[in-house]
Amino acid sequence: MNFGLDGKIALVTGSDSGIGRETARMLLEEGVRVAISDRPGGDIESTLEGLKQYGEVVAVPADVTKLADVQALFAKVRDLLGDPEIVVNAAGVTGATGDFLEVDDAGWAETLEINLMGAVRVAREAIPAMRKAGGGRIVLIASEDAVQPYVDELAYCASKAGLLNLTKGLSKAYGCDNVLVNSVSPAFIETPMTDAMMEKRAKELGTDMDSAIESFLKEERPGMVLKRRGKAEEVAAAIVFLCSGPASFINGANIRVDSGAVMTMAG
Hints:
The chain is of the alpha/beta class and about 270 residues long. About 45% of the residues lie in helices and about 15% in strands. It is globular and about 55 Å long.
């Protein structure tokens, strides 16, 4: 299938590892000129070196919780490559976890600032240039947790539910300008974030990583019928498709890449 992406310009936030990095790699392989971004002080430069073999890529560190950083990010990408026609917001954290009554306001605020308000800031900077250019694609990374909440991750779940609502709202507001906004909802993907979760679980249970993953799937994610963590490239493939020419009639949709984790028809 010809994705029709050759020569396009993309910005991928949260791309120094995991889903964001794999999305950047796949876009590069499709001939897209890509700007990657993540928090200052992370692994963005080493990620840049690893991606150069696939195509034209630049790195611009930015913290999506800071409006000035996001504005500077878009200005720098514009200078280096041009206005991005594709924006993928993969920046996110697990955030505050634990008993609802024990998670304080600061924990909630940090989680929402990164996962939800970060996406708000990125989309707000991206849309004006896309409208002026006659269209563009925005993909927000949500989660199965958005429609199937887990009691020890309620701040994360709420932030991702907000992303689904934001996606639908933006799709209605700007679809008439050919700015198509969609979301992708992964479940338990093999990334540094879930590695940390499983390392913590293994330590608590006094077991190894493989056993921690196996017990987590059995006890916490029974709907994941493939009985394994997903791979970042499996999520990235769905994201890249949504950015492609063949996906030109998809707007306001949420694609779940979750091994069947969500156990209802809704969402």
